[in-house]
Amino acid sequence: MKIINPATEEIITELKEDSKESLSKKMTLLKQGQKKWHSIPLAERVHILQKFSELLKKNLEELAGILTSEVGKPLQQARNEVNGACARIKWLTENAERYLSDEVMSNQPDMQEKIVYEPLGVVCNISAWNYPFLVGTNVFVPALLAGNAVMYKPSEFSSLTGLEIEKLIKEAGVPDDVFQVAIGAGATGQTLLELPFDGYYFTGSYKTGQYIYEKVAPKMVPCQLELGGKDPLYIADDIADIKSVAAATADGAFYNNGQSCCSVERIYVHENIFYQYIEEFVKEVKTYMLGLPNEEGVYISALTREPQLHIVDAQVKDAIAKGAKVLTGGKRAQRKGYYYEPTVLINVNHNMSVMREESFGPLIGIMKVKDDKEAAELMNDTEYGLTAGVYSSAQHRAEKVLAQINAGTGYWNCCDRVSAALPWSGRKHSGIGATLSHAGLRAFTHPKAYHLKG
Ligand code: NDP
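^ thats the input. predicted complex w/ NDP below
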């Protein structure tokens, strides 16, 4: 399998893909190791994963460099990602004891009722490339804390990072028969679906997620899906500072070249401030420097996958054909590598794919609305339900809109943000189940109910 640098189109290295036989052997190894791992005290597992976080910090520069070389994100954003993973591990390890220990629910003289959180066994984590440290951490860290063994399949586009994770997690003290990495493309994921895992945790596109859900169903084991989004923002007409809101929301749309599941994907602006807002927004986007991801000051760099350039371009062309106006960008950058100019469209509507299908690139459509009601209706007009945000000076006004939106996360005066303390969950085509928070710690367990009559 060739690993390509998307910023230069050069081959970085070649890796040997796992075969059906090697995956089967890894699975057998994990089955053997899991029980012993669960038998060690939780405090020890916490300590090992904290050590893993320390190793991530210690190797920050090297890890960020490897990540940037294979996914193309600006180097500073790669550093931010590794630091972000450490922050998540901190919360998960500090709260593991609280949410994974046995819970006595009632203690009567003749009857004690308690819940014991038992691990599932060996779980399979099929992961995405856009934030391999973050989306990986969401799954394998709580899974290991809860006493499971893990087969981690990074995307083929973040395989080098997957191998670094494996190296450091083992250096931290997770045994070889408790954590294994599956190297390969979609076919490797397909083989994993055929093996008898005790749970499947997938991060990726709706299309693959739906396929996996169907494929795993007959096994009758837990299957969680963290999928894509078409995340809307509404800018109300009472915002205090249009310039700073425009800058913050442009960052929400273009950070990581727009390749975040919770990137702002469409913006609705109250008609009273529409023209001031887009003026400031475009001014901000024009300051973004496009270039090689390891160049100082670069904010827009290469997309990770070449086919995504065509998806973004097709959305732009579809929108223009239906009457949209390009305020900046609108085409592939004329240079080697998978670059697309940051693109802002207005005069957009919901007949255009840019307002309905995930762009997953540096592209945003901005639409004028007459009031909060119209904004809420349009925000809900989607198959997805990951996040939604409202910028307004009034919290009650924002919360009134957010309460109407069928999405797992609501933002007031912020966007494109994840917290380890809160559940990360999608609705509709954005997924099933939750990671992070107490829900995400317990997502890798079977709660067993004990009725203990003394
Ligand atoms: P894909 O669905 O293409 O791939 C995800 C993973 O599934 C990869 O490891 C991939 O392998 C693997 N895979 C592909 N085909 C199969 C198959 N038939 N059976 C089993 N596994 C398979 O998604 P992307 O990697 O392109 O990720 C981008 C998507 O992920 C976006 O839609 C984004 O919004 C979403 N996402 C959602 C997040 C959330 O928290 N809700 C977070 C991050 C991303 P390979 O890549 O090697 O082909």
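The longest helix spans residues 75-100.
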